[in-house]
Specification:
This protein has three domains: 214 residues, no CATH class; 53 residues; 63 residues, no CATH class. The N terminus is likely disordered. The chain contains 13 helices and twelve strands. Helix content is 51%, strand content 15%. 15% of the residues are buried.
Length: 386
């Protein structure tokens, strides 16, 4: 396990782990945290967005809420709710490029590990499927599971490769910051005193211990013996520019990673300017393709061709991701209802309000202002008021 961790951490392959110094280990840990912060922030954002989606189920092209709806929106299995389940699914997808979901007794489980045997002209087989501490004692065929794939390239490997080159700039910036807070000086020594054994011992003590404590302490006194003269040639500088440069480079890593996910960088760095447009980009380039990928695999495996053509299918509705303010959207709501595009219950569902259990709430209305050209001409010829 340590060997694989070393390869993943450093991006090197075919090498045995080697001893590292305390400073090197700190640098590796720092690289890991910066890299993981950017990557996992993107994964969590995608998972949060997908968990807000509603998995709508249809029978004969009519929306119905049954066992399948409850499975995807409330409780996929006895140990997870839908939010935890979808977060694990997205985490597996982006970290390993693939994710496997097995159906056991009407419950859905995201596999933690498995062995895939690919066959070009036959169904792939999945062996040693493990969920938590449990390993299935059977082999699953492709038609028995839900197998999700993202792209042909592993997103984790791409972002790690990017950071290997950009991380050098961050390391250089950190070293520059450390140097700006350091202190240097010169020590003048009496040549005759250096021949004295006791003096050499005192000098080594000052050089190895006393001077280190003196340089690192906020307030300190450096003992200087006869024959020694210390002169400082530089002092600590506390410029904020160096720290802002480091912060900017770390933000660059986050921006690059976000672009790889199709996520607007503004949503990760906390910018509040034009959030609406950024959210639209998130839906268009990140969430919608992910939702299409998931619903296509569900429809082809759990409904099949015959069921889909009969109007039985599942659709991932991403409209609930974007927050809708009731007062600011009242004009648009009026237009949607008055044009007959949606009914009252459709609007209440989008707003997260309870549905009205009345027939009229499901009816579609069109105002009298709407009419065809022919109807308008007839009304004008007859002297009627449209």
């Amino acid at each position: 396990m340590a060997f694989h961790f070393w390869k993943w951490l450093t991006g090197k392959t075919g090498e045995e782990p080697k001893p590292v110094t305390e400073g090197e280990f700190f640098d590796l840990a720092t690289d890991l945290y910066i890299r993981e912060l950017a990557f996992q922030s993107c994964v969590n954002l995608a998972g949060n967005a997908l968990s807000k989606c509603e998995f709508k189920t249809f029978e004969g092209d009519v929306e119905k809420k049954g066992a399948e709806y409850y499975l995807w929106n409330i409780e996929p299995n006895q140990n997870q709710n839908s939010t935890a389940f979808l977060h694990k699914l997205v985490h597996q997808l982006y970290n390993t490029r693939t994710a496997l979901v097995v159906d056991q007794g009407g419950k859905l489980y995201v596999a933690d590990s498995y062995v895939r045997r690919e066959y070009a002209l036959y169904e792939d087989l999945f062996e040693q499927v493990t969920v938590g501490e449990f390993t299935f004692g059977r082999t699953f065929s492709q038609s028995e599971v839900l197998f999700f794939e993202l792209t042909q390239e592993n997103m984790r490997r791409i972002t790690n490769g990017l950071y290997l080159s950009y991380g050098k700039l961050i390391a250089y910036g950190m070293k520059g910051y450390q140097k700006s807070r350091g202190e240097k000086g010169t020590m003048s020594l009496d040549v005759q005193m250096m021949s004295n054994a006791d003096f050499r011992k005192r000098y080594e003590a000052i050089q190895n211990a006393d001077f280190r404590r003196f340089a690192e302490a906020e307030n300190a006194i450096l003992p200087v013996y006869k024959g020694m003269d210390y002169t400082a040639i530089s002092s600590k500088t506390y410029s904020a520019d160096s720290t802002r440069d480091i912060r900017s480079m770390i933000d660059d890593v986050t921006d690059f990673t976000a672009r790889g996910f199709g996520i607007p960088p503004a949503l990760l760095n906390g910018s509040v300017q034009d959030v609406s447009s950024a959210t639209d980009q998130l839906l268009t380039f990140c969430v919608d393709p992910l939702a299409d990928n998931i619903q296509e695999e569900i429809n082809r495996k759990r409904y099949g061709k015959a069921g889909y053509l009969r109007g039985n299918y599942l659709r991932v509705d991403t409209s609930a991701i974007k927050h809708i303010d009731l007062l600011s959207s009242s004009g648009n709501i009026d237009k949607l209802v008055s044009s007959g595009v949606v009914c009252i219950n459709d609007i209440r569902g989008l707003l997260g309000q309870p549905l009205i259990n009345e027939p009229w709430a499901w009816e579609h209305f069109i105002t009298k202002n709407y009419a065809t050209v022919e109807e308008l001409l007839k009304a004008l010829e007859g002297g009627e008021t449209v």
